[in-house]
Write a structure and sequence with these properties.
about 375 residues, alpha+beta, OB fold (Dihydrolipoamide Acetyltransferase, E2P), Helix Hairpins, six-stranded antiparallel beta barrel, four-stranded antiparallel β-sheet, 4 helices, about 30% helix, elongated
């Protein structure tokens, strides 16, 4: 009995399918596939160009001593943050203090010689009026006074140099920032002065911090054209806004501004160097870290569509629209960046085009095929 029922069911299904096929043939063609269409979203947007670069310290100094001697003490902890003027290294001061004492004694000796020469000149002037000594003797004593004064000046200069050398036995931080590790331990003899001074450590500034990147020649020319037309100021003339995000950051939350554009393009790479500056109060940004930067590129009255509505055709990009006769037409477009989750279309679309936003997965939806358009809406996707 069950077999008979199954056979009857199959027969009934076959009759239904045959009836449907007969009805379709009677209509002359299969029904037009439904698609969802919408006009592009027209919106005034801010354009940002993206570049890859890395953070660099705004200031970097190699710390070297100006005088030679034995390191007596190291006053910092490796890797700590130091302020400008903080004491870093102490060099044994005893030989330099002796030099200061000797130079101070030379100054006192020179002063005594000057005082004696002044007295002799004063006495000679009175004796010359009485014709006790000749004018030649007076000239000689004046010359001795001038020589004594010059000796005093030399002694005072030597004292200042000795005091300066004594001051340089305390090696202090020339800038504020994060210090590296010490390269020389206490008890070592180091060489100072210029030329072969021993490297003691280095310091890099941490706040603010620079971001350095390379822009292509094509981008540089485009920015120059925009500047000439008045659509966008030059980064050299105005600190244009920039945004940056690190490799693990999904959003562009770090804001800064352009500070510098180089004066020439690199002949080998065909790029030009740019530099932006960012605040780094929490000292999270570290020199050498890579990031993605967005540079303000101007404002545009743009048409936006979902990225899924764009189809690749070898080297070109296409968007399928529905014409007045409800037939599918391909339109070559030039896509731009993603803004608020939608793709900017730089050229190729009109504001009144009916763009297919849903239904492209149907294999029957292809150029020249009639479709049944259903109204849809293009809007920015909701953020999670």
């Amino acid at each position: 009995m069950r077999r008979v029922l199954n056979t009857c069911q199959r027969s009934a299904f076959t009759l239904v399918v045959a009836a449907a096929a007969t009805h379709a043939l009677a209509q002359g063609a299969p029904p037009a596939p439904p698609v969802q269409v919408s006009a592009p979203l027209a919106k005034k947007i801010t354009l940002w160009d993206e570049y890859t670069g890395r953070f660099e310290a705004r200031e970097q100094v190699e710390v070297r001593a100006r005088v030679s001697g034995f390191i007596e003490k190291v006053h910092f902890r490796d890797g700590q943050v130091v302020n400008k003027g903080d004491l870093l290294f102490s060099i044994d001061q005893r030989p330099f203090q002796l030099s200061v004492d000797a130079a101070r004694a030379d100054v006192e000796r020179a002063k005594a010689q000057v005082a004696l020469a002044e007295n002799e000149v004063e006495r000679a002037e009175g004796l010359t009026r009485n014709q006790t000594i000749t004018a030649r003797d007076l000239d000689q004593r004046k010359a001795n006074l001038a020589s004594a004064r010059a000796s005093q000046q030399a002694a005072e200069a030597n004292l200042k140099q000795a005091e300066l050398n004594l001051e340089w036995t305390e090696v202090r931080a020339p800038i504020g920032g994060r210090i590296s590790d010490k390269r020389v331990d206490a008890g070592n003899l180091i060489t100072g002065a210029q030329g072969g001074a021993t490297l003691l450590t280095n310091i890099i500034s941490v706040d603010p911090i620079n971001f350095v990147f390379e822009a292509s020649e094509a981008d540089y020319l485009r920015y120059s054209r925009l500047m000439q037309s008045g659509d966008r100021p030059s980064s050299r003339e105005k600190p244009l806004p920039v945004r940056v995000r690190l490799a693990d950051e999904p959003e562009w939350k770090r804001e800064g501004q352009m500070e510098f554009v180089d004066n020439q393009l690199n002949a080998r790479s065909g790029t030009i160097r740019g530099r932006a500056i960012f605040a780094n109060k929490d000292q999270f940004l570290t020199a050498g870290t890579f990031g993605r930067l967005q540079l303000y590129s101007g404002e545009l009255d743009a048409l936006l569509i979902p990225d899924a509505s764009i189809v690749s055709d070898q080297t070109s990009k296409l968007v399928f629209v529905v014409g007045a006769d409800n037939k599918v037409m391909p339109k070559p477009v030039v896509p731009g960046p993603i803004v608020e989750g939608l793709r900017v279309i730089r050229s190729g679309l009109a504001a009144g085009d009916r763009v297919i936003i849903n239904g492209l997965a149907n294999p029957m939806v292809r150029p020249g095929v009639a479709v049944t358009p259903q109204p849809g809406e293009i809007k920015a996707p909701a953020r999670p």
